[in-house]
Design a protein that fits this description.
This protein is mainly α. It has helices spanning 2-8, 15-38, 45-52, 54-75, 78-100, 109-127, 134-158, 168-192, 196-220, 228-252. Helix 2 (15-38) crosses helix 3, helix 7 packs parallel to helix 9 and helix 9 runs antiparallel to helix 10 (228-252).
Length: 253
Amino acid sequence: WQALLAAAWSVSLTWADQTVLALAVWMIYVGDRWMDARRGKRDTLRHRFYARHQTAFLVAMLVVAPMGGYVALVHLSPTVQMLGWGLSGGVFLYLLAVHFGPSWLSYFKPLVVAFIFTLGCALVPFAGFYAFYIFTCVELLTLKGLAWVNTLLVANWERGRIGAVYNQRIILAGWLGIFAIWIIGLSLIWSGLQTEHERVSRLPLGLLGMVTIGLLGIVLLLPTRYTAEARTMLADLMLFLPAMGILLYWQLV
């Protein structure tokens, strides 16, 4: 998704930009699960896996963190570093709130995770993007909405809420998110049809949003015989494969 936004906004990425993002995403994900395991959380397969390998993941994080820090300090531009420090502060507050704050904050976790994911993917492209339009926000909202629906549904499935035992409020929120992404996708397509320049970026992004959210909706409607693990894997693939298709299309044309 970082490469997708960079291509849409005509921004060049370096190996350091992509490496730091990959290491940061891995650190946040593993650190979040590791802190869950330290608190004794065992309600999903992933949590039980991290609980069994706490020491190994702690060592891995202690190795990866300085590597990512070195690459960021030496090879990233000052603007990206400044934005990265701001985002790092947001991640710290998120971890603090989720793991040490009141339990009701967990209801906002999918929304915050999607927000952080979107900002992380957009940080380098945004730093090199000098022409900011209202539809830039719409493009970011498309990514945030897709990540939010994905995170919301995965969290629901991992807790065993499949079929008749679905949490109805979460499923309603998921369908509302799907509908909203369709509207956003249509607006990007409409904008992309206005001029040739906008057609190059906004039309594919609009189509991408509509196709991806449609595929997530299909995963949501799968029969109850599909396990939570299978649904989670399919949902993650639906977030990844269409974006790769658009990138390949841009490379070919």
